[in-house]
Amino acid sequence: MPQTSSWRRSGRWRNDTRLALLGETPWDKPRPTSFTLDTGVSRVKYDQARWTDDSDDLYEPLLSEKTSKTVDIEDSPLPDDLTRDSLSLPDPAEPELARHYTRLSQMNYGVESGPFPLGSCTMKYNPSFTEDVAARADAAIHPGRPDSTVQGTLALCHRLQDYLGRIGGMDAVTLQPPAGAAGEFTGIQIAKAYHEHNDGERSEVVIPDSAHGTNFATAAMAGYEVVELPSGDDGRVDIEALEAAVGDDTAALMLTNPNTLGLFERDIEHVADIVHDAGGLLYYDGANLNALLGRARPGDMGFDVMHYNVHKTFATPHGGGGPGAGPVGVREELAQFLPNPHVRERGGNYEHYEPANSIGKVHGFYGNWPVLLKTFAYIARLGDEGLRDASAKAVLNANYLAEQIEYEVPFGPFHHEFVASAGEQDAADAAKRMLDYGVHPPTTKWPEIVDEALMTEPTEGETRRSLDQLAAAFNAVAGDSDAELADAPSRPAAKRIDQVTAARNPQLSWQALDDT
Ligand SMILES: Cc1ncc(COP(=O)(O)O)c(C=O)c1O
């Protein structure tokens, strides 16, 4: 077992971050190691370029320390203080380069390394056939080409609009927004345009306290006052509180269903009546659509506008802030406000056009095209039955996992995700400790309705065996001491960072960081 060496204890975490990002280490005598960790839950092989224990393992130099060559720089028209005369560049052989990047990739963790139960994020496995589809040469069209020369591309956009509309029970869908949050903003702009067009301005958007932060941010950015709705004792919308909150000023209620506790809003039709009777619109945050695929449709529940997080529900890559796509679906009477351009079929041809009262541009050209292409490929490959099967397995897996873990799950029955409580433990510590057992932790400390929340979403892709491994990691952490939790993680390449300093004084440069 590796020892934590003194540089770590002395708080030089920035070097650690640098190691993870650049594969360079400025400290002296680094030594790598390769070892297999048998946690009793899973076997994890660590094979890092360097390890900071005190053993005398073989040392494989990192890319930056291999042969480099110096190149002369041609004269440049830029000012002298912005240029240099020569530049030293790494000059590795191809195998060295391949090994370098492979090694770096092994220091990271992704859905292809193991389960990734980050609640609300739906980190499902992305089947690689969708990458093949997006990589086809005929998918790489110039976005400025005239419509008549890209009829296949436009037909595909039109079919995807149609697929998503049918899945969500919506009459029209724009593919333009590049993320869930961007979809929310687009959807609320559409709601705003609708009110301005019909009954004048409304000033408030009502949002349950269990909602994702982007809902609150969206409403505020769109210029609305946010009315926060406290959840009822059962974790769902409190009807009395809703009736009190909704009125003539209500532009929309933004709701996630199942909500972020994984609970289905059983009174959704009643909720829709309350909002509609007050003249408001019902907005569906589609981040949890994975729970309902092929079984229930927001449009049938009374929702007027919704976004789809295609990078969650339809298995397109997700993370690191992108790439993603957040198409928005609307009812017929809202279609006139969709962003420009929209794709339609006319007389057997497909074309871009500007809807009559469009809110304008929210993205350039086709939206985030490769992500949309992968979405299309995923939906077409799974078909109706496959999508129904995905939601069934997502719900089954969440319920199976919750049964296996020792932490309490206060709210239920839940669908595709559940929120356990770490109880006396700090949820963030528990999450860091899970890294030591070789699995990715759940989302922590949110929603705040659950103390020390561990929001867990295994997704449909996990097998019973991997769910058992995940449960064993949860249970091992549940039995760990405070000291073990406070020290975690001790095994991954990157250790715990000083989050306060990282948030208040972020160092975003690639330049060498000094040790002060
Ligand atoms: C419930 C919920 N709504 C909205 C979003 C925002 O989606 P995106 O990350 O695509 O912007 C998320 C993201 O995790 C979410 O969990």
Strands ordered across the widest β-sheet = 5-11-10-9-8-6-7
Global outline: globular
Strand percent estimate: 15-25%
Attached small molecules? pyridoxal-5'-phosphate
Q: Could you tell me the number of beta strands?
A: 16
| Average of pLDDT | 86
**Fraction of helical residues:** 25-40%
What's the CATH class label of the largest domain?
Answer: Alpha Beta
Uncertain runs: 1-59
Separation of the first and last Cα atoms: 30 Å
Instruction: Specify the number of helices.
Output: 16
The CATH architecture of the largest domain is 3-Layer(aba) Sandwich
CATH-assigned fold name of the largest domain: Aspartate Aminotransferase, domain 2
Q: What is the rounded Rg?
A: 25 Å
Number of domains: 3
Structural class: alpha/beta
What does the largest sheet look like?
7 strands, mixed
Could you name the CATH homologous superfamily of the largest domain? Answer: Type I PLP-dependent aspartate aminotransferase-like (Major domain)
Please, could you describe this protein's structure?
34% of the residues lie in helices and 16% in strands. By secondary structure, the protein is an alpha/beta fold. It has 3 domains: 6-107, no CATH class; 129-382, Type I PLP-dependent aspartate aminotransferase-like (Major domain) (Aspartate Aminotransferase, domain 2), CATH 3.40.640.10; 384-487, Aspartate Aminotransferase, domain 1 (Alpha-Beta Complex). The protein has a 7-stranded mixed sheet with strand order 5-11-10-9-8-6-7, sandwiched between helices. α6 crosses α7 and α12 packs across α14 (464-478). The protein is globular. The relative contact order is 0.14. Residues 1-59 have low confidence and may be disordered. The structure holds pyridoxal-5'-phosphate. Pyridoxal-5'-phosphate (PLP) is lined by residues 120-121, 179-181, 212, 214, 256, 260, 285, 287, 309, 324, 326.
